[in-house]
Amino acid sequence: MHLKAEDLSSMEIEFDSGVVPPPYSHIFKLKIGFGAKSLETSLDLIYTDREELSEEEIFDEGFSLDDDFHFKGEISKIWEKPLKDLYLKSKWTSTLMDEEGGISLMVKDRQGKTSRVIPQNQQEWQIFAQDLIQAIYETSKKELPLSLRYLIRTQSGEKMIHLTVKFSIRKVEIKSNGKIIDGDWDKTKELLSYVFLPDYDYSKAKQQVPNHQGHFIDCGDGYWHELGKGVVNIDNSFDAVSKIREGFQKLV
To answer: Which domain of life, per UniProt (predicted)?
Structure first.
């Protein structure tokens, strides 16, 4: 049973990473209540099957021994419309999730009716859920907003672009040449999907701002990478590096 989006009072999003090996394998349950002024939210994110790994193996993958995360509180109501819009446009399947894992939903309307559904557009729901979790991280002060710098240096001059993505309020700020403008959320998210596709060679990265011609990016950790040299495509069938260049040039 597909409940009407405008009648929804709450939603639970459950995810299982399936066959992904530890220490990456995890599950989460995201509960969202549609309040008058905010979204009443809880998150339980738990990493699984780590008992078969040594502490060193976990550390080597960039994790700690306590990566589980729990939250109960409120997030901005600005997330309500895009969440309901995604629910409204989704098609559903009765096929149970297999070892590949995925997302399922439990929705409840204002009359108390409930429905458990599995979306066919799994990737779209998983990306949206990760955005919601990032909003929770920012709201709870676990993480700061994502901040990137992009430098274009040519013979005629340079342009420094500061891009700040605030998931907690679904807002993008672009600062360039002393001016701050609001960026488009969806276009910026598309650009970010390209930013994290290539391979970043930290042996070629510099902490100083580059002073030679080229395109350079700092992904938020203070290291500058040169596109085409320290940032190279992993998949020859898709030129993510060019997409990054084009995306940042279109921002301002």
So the answer is: Bacteria
Where does the pLDDT of residue 108 fall: very low under 50, low under 70, confident under 90, or very high at 90 and above? Answer: very high
Answer yes or no: are the C-beta atoms of 108 and 10 closer than 8 Å.
yes
Q: Which two tokens stand for residue 252?
A: 């301002």
- Structural domain including 231 reads 146-251
Is 230:201 a contact under the CB 8 Å cutoff? yes
* One-letter amino acid for residue 128 of the chain: F
Contact in structure between 68 and 46 (CB atoms under 8 Å):
yes
Which is it for strands 8-16 and 102-109: parallel, antiparallel or unpaired?
A: antiparallel
For 222-251, write each residue's pLDDT tens digit: 999 999 999 999 988 999 999 999 999 988
Q: Is 200 found in the same domain as 91?
A: no
The number of domains in the chain is 2
